[in-house]
Amino acid sequence: MLWPDSATGGAIRAVWEVMDALGVPSMATHTHRLHQPHVSLVVAEDLRPEGALEAVGTVPRRPIQLLINAAGVFPGGVLFLACVVNQDLLDEQRRVHRAVAPLAVDIWPYLEPGSWTPHITTGRELTPPQLAEALPLVVDALPIAGWLDHGGLEDGSTGENWPCPAPAFDLR
User: Fold this and answer.
1) Number of structural domains, the chain?
2) Which residues contact 96 (CB under 8 A, 6 or more apart)?
3) How many CB atoms lie within 10 A of CB 11?
4) Is 39 among the domain residues?
5) Is the N or the C terminus of the chain less surrounded, counting Cβ atoms within 10 Å?
6) DSSP H or E segment with residue 79
């Protein structure tokens, strides 16, 4: 997964906080409450961090510009921030997917290169009335621009994460 720079992550967390303040559950309060704003590159039922981190090396290879200027909904009441697709983002997703595919068990098919929708989840399992209340709040926070400047693995069920080695980037 790719994590945004601290300022961009803060802007996304602010969206989560607004949702929570209005009684609409966000990723800040979902399950273990340890979720971090991120763009998933690969999701699998089982992927051991030790081998995966070695296989992918530095993630991302260089900072990837992030622009979010739309929101969307996946089936099951998943509200998300839609990342504008750029070649660097597509290349990094394809590279990471290829590196970990031999190590992963049951990769989710909608995260396969060519089927992937780059996004940052804001809320899950929202009801239609919650979606109707949250969507204008999310859209009002747009656009959000920044960088995806570090990456790693996360266990979505526990919130535990393992950062990849990353060189220091100067984003000024």
Assistant:
1) 1
2) 41, 42, 56, 59, 151
3) 20
4) yes
5) C
6) strand 78-83
